[in-house]
Amino acid sequence: MSTIKTVEELRTVYKAPLERAVLKEMVGLDKHARAFLQRSPFVLIGSCAPGGRADVSPKGDQPGFVHALDDRTIAIPDRPGNNRLDTFENILGNPTVGLIFLIPGMNETLRINGTAEISTDPALLARFEHQRKLPISVMIVRTEEVYLHCAKAFLRSGLWDPSTFIERGSFPSFGTILKDQIAAEETAEELDRHLAERYKATLY
Question: pTM to 2 decimals?
Answer without folding.
Answer: 0.94
